[in-house]
Write a structure and sequence with these properties.
Shape: globular
Structural class: alpha+beta
Number of helices: 16
Strand content: 5-15%
Length: about 500
Amino acid sequence: MKLDRRTSTATSQTLTATTSSADARLLVRETLRISANLASSPSSVLPPSETVRSPDAASFGLIEEQFVDASLRLICYEEIDGRRFKYLAQKEGSKLRKGSNSIRAVSLQSRRAPVDELVSFIRSYVVPDGFPDSVSPSYVPYMTWRALKHFFGGAMGVFTTQALLHSVGVSKSQAMPGAVAINWIIKDGSGRIGKMLFSRQGKKFDYDLKQLRLSGDLLMELGAAVELATTAVPHLFLPLACAANVAKNVAAVTSTSTRTPIYKAFAKGENIGDVTAKGECVGNVADLLGTGFSIIMAKRNPSLFTTFALLSCGYLFSSYREVKSVVLHTLNRARFTVAVESFLKTGSVPTLQEGNMMETVFNLPWCKDGPVVLGSRFKDAFQDANSFYDVEPVFEKERYVVAYNPLKGNIYAVLKDKAKSDDILKAAFHAHVLLYVLRSSKHIQVTNEYTSGDRVNPLPTSADLQAHVAESYNMVSALYEPFKNKTKEQGWVMSDSLLNPGRARICEQVR
């Protein structure tokens, strides 16, 4: 029996050794094969292991592989305008790399076909945002017949322009009338193109109507000034006339688009049509009186440029006072900022009259974003992955993340994919609270309230930012509901759409 046992043991050891040797050869063979494939395959941004994802990954859920590569770590997914991205953090050893270039955004979709890009571009100009759900069924037939009407009207305009030129002495037998008519039509056509391009502003006519109304009046005066300049350089008539017409047509779009919401704020019942008609009548009467005044003044041969400068100053001052006198009940970004700052400083929300008077109605064109950016892209809000992971636990139960980016000097509210209307309002409120906390801590000195020119002094550390975010979270938990109640008491109407949040949304984060 002992002999048999020894023989059995020896046999099993031999088999084990043989099996181990075979496994080793197989492992070496597979390693060499994989290495050859990797060497022959073209390099790409994503590692090969990243091309195989679970079904949840394709639908923006959590994935099983958190570490997608030895040098990359998945942070989160993002969706904006139907396009999907994932953010990867670069690693240095066992730690995440710091710095503005340490986050990589990778598109999960191939580039759309040129035809699809063209269709999307055209839709952004000719249909409202959210079409067809954002309009009634009668919108399409109405706009179809309206387009046909304008087609025939535009065609008739060519012949009427020729007739007017002929009536003032330009002969049909000369080549000149055709050239003059073409120049005149080009001038008017360029204005219509400018009007069409500016219509892409879309929802801004609803929430920033005061700002756009004043900007439109400034453009109107700019167009008038360019028209005046044609007397000094008549050989540049066509380009100057085209530029002036573009500016004046953009101003006309702004005036037309903001007129109804402004009259709606005045109407107390179902009388908006009557209010609009009487308002337009007052404007026409005043225009006729101004025309008569200018005819009387022109007989005295005053200085053209001096007269224009004086009349322009009166026009712009009247326009500024006009928009400042409008009292709107809605809280757009500017009035929301006024309401939150007043609430944090005094504990009360301004009245409708006070809030509208305190609203800033003119911003410099190059100051695109203020100190608070709502619904921003992930890559704009966080300078590196560490800055995200530092604050993300604080917002675990919220549908947004608020952070301060010291490199850009702005507060960013990043929205999650499940954020609803109240979540967006709360995120905006939280962003202003964090801004208030940072200003109180002297980490931010604001040089201009509505520009991004905040001066950081001194640069806050990561620990400082975490402490400030935690402090702001506690303040929001205690103050958000009282703020909403007081705004309603004052008659304010809050809506997330009036705050114009960005369309980017982040999805489930990977821990």
